Structure formats: structure tokens, C-alpha cells
């Protein structure tokens, strides 16, 4: 339990963190990786280079300072981040390393303004927050390990099939190398793929949504091929160009909070842009097989027909449903985007809405959903990568 004095000191640093948070977290990551380069086997190097990881951590630290009196307010964020940590293989012994370098970064950036009282209060607060993460993640690891066909960290899977879905998206069907089945997962969850790429010093991990309803013996991920010079594309290019049927990759157990409740009968809408369709197609398939009478809307936005994946699958799943509306919008055609008028026509504002796609797409869609009367608690969205602040006001 934190003392009132500690909480007061931590709260008083919130304005400073708002101004200097990203500078602090940038120094933190630089120094931590210099001291512990082995951690580069866990972290996404591209998110580091682009500043996304630094910004995400700065937002989390700031939120902790603001809510230090009621840390339960940040529990949803803790759970979301913990899912990412578990899928990456973050362990309890990593937290003291993070704490040490976070405090050193605060001192380095703030200089004399980082008094002993401030550093002491943050050390105490970090201990409480770290314990919360460790506890939540221990429960997740236990649940993952103890479920049927479950495991912790990474396990070898064979690429059983590699299927081209569009000009840029290819599906990989993955089966356990030991011949076992896979654990049950919730529609919308993701797995991590860990690969060792020739010429790269460290292992690389990327998360990919599971793109079909649960099967007993396999996972399916559907990966967008990024442009050759896109720094985000190192793993996707490796999967597309070098990984073939019969090859082995390492896979984490399913994780994630962006999930569909398959038992709900109330209206649901799936709104996706680009590769954001990947978790949605698994959700649609689940509705079609478990609650086929559920009022359902499936809207997808793509640049053109060549880039639109899963069109045949959408039609196949829709054919099993009694109350479904679906449409794909191509931005190279007139009225080829999901506008407010489209949302008013298709979306039941009393139901749940799932949104996934590029950040500008999600910002625009969520803003328009608010305008037509959909409440925040009805809107579920998923980031590919570290969680960011959405500008949807």
C-alpha cells in the first residue's frame, strides 16, 4: 500500500511526465538495451525506431501518475499490455531491470528536478505497478499452460499450407510440430510468431490475428506483405518470400482482449480497413456457425479489388446467416469509403461494433460512430502494435 505522501509526490510529477514522458522513455530504452542487449530478442525493433514503443510507455507511465490514488482505473490497460507481454515471453525477472533503468532515465532527463523524494516515490510506485503486472501475467501464464493443449512461451509449428488471399495478403496454416492439437481461443485473439532471419542479429517477434474460427488442430494467420523498403516489413517479407510449406516457425499461445462474445444474440457490426479484416473474418465465421440468426453487418474498405482479401469467404459465411448485411468499399471508385451515411444505413446503434484497420481509418470510423449515437462502451478496436492515443473526438 502506497503512503499518502508517496501518492502526492507521484501525482505532482504528472505535468512533468506529460511534457517529458517520451524523452524519458527514449533514454530508458536506449540505456536498457545497451546494458541488456538480450532483451532485443523480445522487443519490436521497428516500433523502437519509429518511437511508437516509447510513446506507448510514456502514456502508461503518465496514466499511472494521474491515477495513483485509484490504480484500478488503469487495470484495463494493464490487462491489455499484459496480454502483449505474455505473447512476447516477458518474465517476472525482467521487471527489476525495467525499474532500474526507468528511474535512471527520469534522473538523466530531469536532472536536479528529480529529487531524492521524487525518485524514492517513483521507486515505490513502480514496485506496486510491477507487482500488479507480474501477478496478472502469472495468472495468464498459468491459464495458458493448464488449458487443454496449452503451453507457455514459444512452441514449434509447421507451416502446413500457404495460401494467397489477395495481391498483398497470404494466409499461413500452422500445425503443432509435435502432432498435438491447439488450444481453444476466442475469435479476435492473436498469436506471436518468432523467427530467426538470416543476417539479423536478434530474433524477431510479430503478433498476427488468428483469421479463422477455432479449429482443433491448426491456427491460421493472414499476413500483409509490406513494401520492400518499409521498416515494418522485415518479418512479413521473410514470411512471404522465404518461409515455405513444411518450414517451422515458433508460435506463442493465443492472447488478446479484442474478442467476440460468441453467445451474444444482440446486433453486431464488423468494420475493417485493409489488413484489419484478419480478426474480423474469424469473428464473422464464428457468428455464422454459432449464432447464425444474430443481426450482423460486415463492412470492409480496401484500395481496390486486387487488394481485397477474403471476399469469397465473406460470401460463404454470409450464406449461412439469416440476418446479415455485407459490403466492400473500394477507394479507387466513387463513394468508395465507409462514410457516416453508410454507417447510418448499416449499423444498429444499439449493438456492439468492432473496428480494426490503419490508425487514420479507426479514428475516422470511431468519430463517425460517436456522431450517429454509438456509445464508447459499445465500440471495440484493435491496434496492430503498441496501443496509441486515438484522435476520435
Automatic annotation (TrEMBL):
EC identifiers of the protein: 1.14.12.17
This protein's domain notes: Consists of two distinct domains; an N-terminal heme-containing oxygen-binding domain and a C-terminal reductase domain with binding sites for FAD and NAD(P)H.
Site (Influences the redox potential of the prosthetic heme and FAD groups): residue numbering on this chain: 84, 382
Domain FAD-binding FR-type: 152-261
Limits of the Globin domain: 1-138
Site (described: Involved in heme-bound ligand stabilization and O-O bond activation): 29
Positions of NADP(+) binding: 274-279
Free-text remark on how the cofactor is bound: Binds 1 heme b (iron(II)-protoporphyrin IX) group per subunit.
Annotated gene: hmpA
Organism whose genome encodes this protein: Paenibacillus apii
Location of region: Reductase: 149-393
Reactions this protein catalyses: 2 nitric oxide + NADH + 2 O2 = 2 nitrate + NAD(+) + H(+); 2 nitric oxide + NADPH + 2 O2 = 2 nitrate + NADP(+) + H(+)
Family label: Belongs to the globin family. Two-domain flavohemoproteins subfamily.
Binding site for FAD: 190, 206-209, 383-386
Positions annotated as active site in the UniProt record: 95 (charge relay system), 137 (charge relay system)
GO molecular function term, any single one: metal ion binding
Gene3D superfamilies: Globins, Nucleotide-binding domain of ferredoxin-NADP reductase (FNR) module, Translation factors
Name by which UniProt lists this protein: Flavohemoprotein
Binding site for heme b: 85
Cofactor(s) the record lists: heme b; FAD
Function: Is involved in NO detoxification in an aerobic process, termed nitric oxide dioxygenase (NOD) reaction that utilizes O(2) and NAD(P)H to convert NO to nitrate, which protects the bacterium from various noxious nitrogen compounds. Therefore, plays a central role in the inducible response to nitrosative stress.
Gene Ontology biological process terms, A to Z: cellular response to nitrosative stress; nitric oxide catabolic process; response to toxic substance
Keywords tagged on the record: Detoxification, FAD, Flavoprotein, Heme, Iron, Metal-binding, NAD, NADP, Oxidoreductase, Oxygen transport, Transport
Amino acid at each position: 500500500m502506497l503512503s499518502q505522501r508517496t501518492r502526492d509526490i507521484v501525482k505532482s510529477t504528472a505535468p512533468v511526465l506529460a511534457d517529458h514522458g517520451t524523452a524519458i522513455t527514449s533514454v530508458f530504452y536506449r540505456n536498457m538495451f545497451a546494458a541488456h542487449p538480450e532483451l532485443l530478442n523480445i522487443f519490436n525493433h521497428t516500433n523502437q525506431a519509429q518511437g511508437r514503443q516509447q510513446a506507448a510507455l510514456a502514456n502508461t507511465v503518465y496514466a499511472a501518475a494521474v491515477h495513483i490514488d485509484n490504480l484500478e482505473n488503469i487495470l484495463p490497460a494493464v490487462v491489455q499490455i499484459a496480454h502483449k507481454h505474455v505473447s512476447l515471453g516477458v518474465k517476472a525477472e525482467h521487471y527489476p531491470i525495467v525499474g532500474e533503468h526507468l528511474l535512471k532515465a527520469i534522473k538523466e532527463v530531469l536532472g536536479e528536478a528529480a529529487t531524492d523524494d521524487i525518485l524514492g516515490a517513483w521507486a515505490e510506485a513502480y514496485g506496486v505497478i510491477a507487482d500488479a503486472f507480474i501477478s496478472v501475467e502469472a495468472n495468464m501464464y498459468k491459464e495458458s499452460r493448464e488449458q487443454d493443449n496449452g503451453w507457455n512461451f514459444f512452441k514449434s509449428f509447421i507451416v502446413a499450407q500457404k495460401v494467397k488471399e489477395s495481391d498483398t495478403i497470404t494466409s499461413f496454416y500452422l500445425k503443432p510440430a509435435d502432432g498435438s492439437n491447439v488450444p481453444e481461443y476466442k475469435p479476435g485473439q492473436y498469436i506471436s510468431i518468432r523467427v530467426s532471419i538470416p543476417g539479423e542479429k536478434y530474433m524477431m517477434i510479430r503478433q498476427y490475428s488468428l483469421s479463422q474460427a477455432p479449429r482443433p488442430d491448426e491456427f491460421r494467420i493472414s499476413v500483409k506483405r509490406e513494401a520492400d523498403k518499409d521498416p515494418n516489413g522485415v518479418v512479413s517479407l521473410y514470411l512471404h518470400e522465404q518461409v515455405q510449406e513444411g518450414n517451422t516457425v515458433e508460435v506463442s499461445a493465443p492472447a488478446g482482449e479484442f474478442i467476440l462474445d460468441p453467445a451474444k444474440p444482440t446486433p453486431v457490426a464488423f468494420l475493417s480497413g485493409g489488413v484489419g479484416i484478419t480478426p474480423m473474418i474469424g469473428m464473422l465465421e464464428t457468428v455464422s456457425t454459432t449464432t447464425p440468426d444474430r443481426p450482423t453487418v460486415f463492412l470492409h474498405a480496401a484500395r481496390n479489388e486486387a487488394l481485397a482479401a477474403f471476399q469469397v469467404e465473406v460470401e460463404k459465411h454470409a450464406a449461412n446467416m439469416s440476418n446479415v448485411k455485407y459490403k466492400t468499399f473500394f477507394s479507387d471508385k466513387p463513394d468508395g469509403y465507409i462514410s457516416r451515411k453508410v454507417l447510418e444505413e448499416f449499423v444498429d446503434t444499439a449493438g456492439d461494433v468492432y473496428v480494426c484497420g490503419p490508425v487514420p481509418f479507426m479514428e475516422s470510423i470511431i468519430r463517425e460512430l460517436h456522431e450517429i449515437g454509438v456509445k464508447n462502451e459499445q465500440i471495440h478496436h484493435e491496434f496492430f502494435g503498441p496501443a496509441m492515443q486515438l484522435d476520435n473526438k
